[in-house]
Amino acid sequence: MNDINFNKSRVLFERATKVIPGGVNSPVRYFKPYPFFVESANGSKLFTNDGNVLIDYCLGYGSVFLGHANQEIGTEIKYQIDKGNLFCTPTEKELQLAEICTRIIPCAEMVRIMNTGAEAAMHSIRLARSFTNKTKLVKFEGGYHGAFDYVLNKAGSAAATMDYTDGILTESASKTITIPFNDIESVQKVINKKENRDDLACIIIEPVLANAGLILPEKEYLNNLRSIAKENNILLVFDEVITGFRLALGGASEFFGIRPDIAIFAKTLGNGYPISLVAGSKEIMSGFAPSGSVYQASTFAGNPISVTAALKTLEILVNEKNTIYPKVVINCDKIVDAIRDIVHDKRLDITLNSIGSMFQLFFSDIPIKDYSSVKSTNTESFYKLFKILLSKNIFIPPSPYETCFISTVHNEEDIEKTIDAYESALSTVMNS
Ligand SMILES: Cc1ncc(COP(=O)(O)O)c(C=O)c1O
Q1: Which CATH number fits the domain that encloses residue 98?
Q2: Could you give the maximum distance between any two Cα atoms of the chain, in Å?
Q3: Does the residue 65 lie in any domain?
Q4: How remote is the CA of residue 349 from the centroid of ligand 1, in Å?
């Protein structure tokens, strides 16, 4: 952190470590020597307590697709605050949100609204177990579905940076089979094993793996997965917590033209307000209590503030989809193409992956197609790049096991500054 200073953040962090474990309320927020503190945010910018203005490519880990402090959403929220913020009885707005979701989300005949991505992932697995009357689940190396017991094995995001599995009972993780992404033979092998064949409830997958850097599904991979799951009566669960409403209005399912049995959403759904949902057919979703016997409950589920945020977010996305989605792709491509040119001109051993409004750079010249290829990259160079970009007022997620995100409000000036910063930062990293 050379060019700009984060002295006030350092002091705040020292105070924070005394009362908050590790000084942060989610491990992914920590980076060495200390994270910066944010006072406010607007559009594509974060304003730190030190007085720095940062162009934000983290965006609440992909949540704030329409930009920080979106005025249209804010106006609706202010109006709702005056009308009350928690009733714990049904509201018409919840119903409207559910109805819109069933029109937008390809696999949704019904949705159940929850609060966080982890909650949605956990209950989607429970629902799949109940529906199939089977117990095991398949997940993928580097895939992240939340901080709960049976999906943390070889998980991505901050869990990829060290072993964070203390306190997890081996019994609770014993029904989870973790295999490499983009390797259809591994799936077939798991199914062929006698001990698994009749006991696989679901395959849960991020259709674009965005918690191990950014890894794209190879051609036909998701299609093959869809077919194999169907042939073997295994439910296919798309974790669209990152891709939902971002990759396309109807998420990865619409983008790739593949219909999972269950899909889960969060992040972009509320443009940063805490809300998530599980979507699926009537037959499957009716398993949730009280119509079925899969117990899912939460005091804050469907609270009017988060539902208002989601309703307005989806209204904007539906009304402006013909301009929003092409625009974010064009802006993402501008950054990625410019970095590719720099990499080419300077002959750097760097690989870039991108799709839609997401991109990531890896210090390696091999194709990055699974977790083990990400693990083989030069992560030390990545951390150097992160620090230098930050010193130039560019904030990307502080880990090679994350993805950079573009919002609908990143503008030409942001993009030019970002490209210039990458150019000089890459020269410095490669010469160090
Ligand atoms: C793909 C995916 N699934 C699930 C989750 C968990 O969501 P939450 O942090 O809201 O519990 C995340 C969080 O980053 C995620 O990226």
Answers
A1: 3.40.640.10
A2: 63
A3: no
A4: 31
